[in-house]
Amino acid sequence: MSTLKVNTIADPDNGNTAITIDSSGNATFAQNLSITGNLTGDGSALTGISSPSNILQVVSGSWNGESSTINPSENTWYDSGWTIYFTPESATSKFILYAHTRLSVKKTTSSAFHGASMRFKKTQSSTVTYPSQLGGSMDGNLHHQLTDLFGTTMDPHSIPVTFFAIEESSSTDQISYLMQYGGYGLSSNAKLWAGSQWSFPTSYQIIEFEE
User: Fold this and answer.
1) What Cα–Cα distance (Å) separates residue 45 from each residue in 19, 36, 42, 87, 195?
2) Sign of the dihedral defined by the CA atoms of residues 210, 120, 122, 136, in that order
3) DSSP secondary structure code for residue 199 in this structure
4) pLDDT digits (tens, 9 = 90+) for 119-177
5) Are 75 and 142 in contact (CB under 8 A)?
6) Which domains does the chain have, with CATH numbers?
7) What is the pLDDT of residue 32?
8) Using CA atoms, how far apart are residues 105 and 66, in angstroms rounded to an integer?
9) What is the pLDDT of residues 106-120, one digit of tens each?
10) Most buried of 6, 32, 84, 159 (most Cβ within 10 A)?
11) Cβ of 176: how many Cβ atoms within 10 Å?
12) Contact 78/180 with Cβ under 8 angstroms?
């Protein structure tokens, strides 16, 4: 077997050094390295390489149902009929929760200030938390949506609501997200709706990723 011993390899035209080899056999490439075949190995010794976030799964769905409450109590959250189920693929991942639904209010008197809101009740491994809404004050706040929009009118009014949160996984146990809704400033025998009203779609998307 023949061995070629060199410490540098240069290009044939300009003599620029392309590869430098030290006494331990480590090779340094001065310019770009292009590979047309397969690069084998487990990659455990690779250093100095930045990797973008890796998307593990994308889950989406919709709900065609509707929940309503007659004579809702002030500042009380009510369970809707919409629950999202999601199982993380990794115990160290993050995921984006995006949901879109509709809230409606009908009053029976002309009180001026009223509103409604929604949130998600998250349950994983018997632990209950409430994801924080990004870019808004909806998280746990019934005084967020519809506030002052309708003045003293008693006609039913509806508004689309978007919920956006970034969550972190602590295990691969299944997660359930139950949508809850509530209202404030509502008169006696008022009505509160949440869900797919008047053919308006209620949908969600969850994107799980690792950084």
Assistant:
1) 20, 21, 8, 32, 52
2) positive
3) G
4) 889 999 999 998 887 655 444 444 444 444 445 555 566 777 888 889 988 899 999 99
5) yes
6) 1-32 (no CATH), 54-210 (2.60.120.1340)
7) 80
8) 13
9) 766 655 566 778 888
10) 84
11) 14
12) yes
